[in-house]
């Protein structure tokens, strides 16, 4: 496959070429040509997170994955599926089975979701993309096709490179196929929603944990200018969901619905806002300043920064285990340390040197300018 000239761009960085391979083999041919020409490479799926992280220092070639689509295999008896990376996550339908991976951004692709390790409310019960991924096909920067993991849930052979590629922001190679474990679609679900005074939030969250109702998600929405709302998702058999939801309804003084509140599983920032991912110990969720939204049961929340953004970001980093700026307008992004302190950054640099010695894949996009 030959490269096509373009005036397209990635996060404001102008590219010279674009290619849209439809198979792993076509993608390998593209990357072989790029390697021979010394081209820097950026990967793009649906573009829902294309402005996340730092912009690449250069991007001679954009590899568009939107033709790498479709379900390669669905082994219902083994509860696994093999999906091409450009497939929209919200288009997947496995009948009585599900890939229990929420995407807060409609239209996001499988590959992009894995590349930045996004997940939504149900990460509490089912885990993140890193947890659900059991195998992966990646083309390394030198065009070598690499496969890791397998097509059985209990596969333990070889190195689990899928964990390494998950969350690497496209800096180590091009993901072309993913193997995921599936779960049965629950027979019933219910959302228990309640408004909680800020002073009572810690006690209410502790009470939810103590009630042992095995929620699939416990989300909070704490806007800067309004009351805090807690929403708990219960899934399972019809009888079990009814009983557990009734217990929570009584505990929280809330309401039960078959549908989530409008904010559930969404990010709290507008398209041109400053979006931050915050990680905090469960015991300190209630101590975070207002304006956060996300999982009160895993300590992964998100917020939209306004006003004195550097000062607010510094305050968040002082209160949390980490606060990573996911997205920001260029005028703001250039003034911020997007990642903050990153433990193990020197190890990450060595991994980058090993997998991409010429630093041609999304150079500078990851933490520490990797």
TrEMBL record:
Keyword tags: FAD, Flavoprotein
Supply the Pfam families for this chain. Answer: FAD_binding_4
InterPro entries, per this entry?
FAD-bd_PCMH, FAD-bd_PCMH-like_sf, FAD-bd_PCMH_sub2, FAD-linked_Oxase-like_C, Oxid_FAD_bind_N
Among Gene3D superfamilies, the record links this protein to:
3.30.465.10
Q: Where is the FAD-binding PCMH-type domain?
A: 10-185
The superkingdom listed in its UniProt entry is Bacteria
This chain's protein is named Glycolate oxidase
The record lists the organism as: Winogradskya consettensis
Lineage, uppermost ranks: Bacteria, Bacillati, Actinomycetota, Actinomycetes, Micromonosporales
